[in-house]
Amino acid sequence: MEDKSSKQQPHTPDQPHMKSSLPPAIAVPKKIQLKIAGYEICPIPTGVFGLDGGAMFGTVPKVLWEKSNPPDEKNRIPMEARALLLKSKDRNILIDCGNGSDFVAKYGEKLGTKFAEMYGLDSNGPSLLKSLASHHITPDQITDVIITHFHFDHAGGGTCEANGKLVPTFSKARYHVQKANLETARKPNLREKASYYAANFEPLEMAGSLNILDGDTQNLLPGISTMVSHGHTQGQQIVKIADDNSSLLYCADVVPTSSHVRLAWVMGYDLEPLRLIEEKIRFLGMAADQKTYLYFEHDPYCDAASIARNGQDFALQERFLL
Question: What local confidence, expressed as pLDDT, does residue 156 receive?
Answer without folding.
Answer: 97
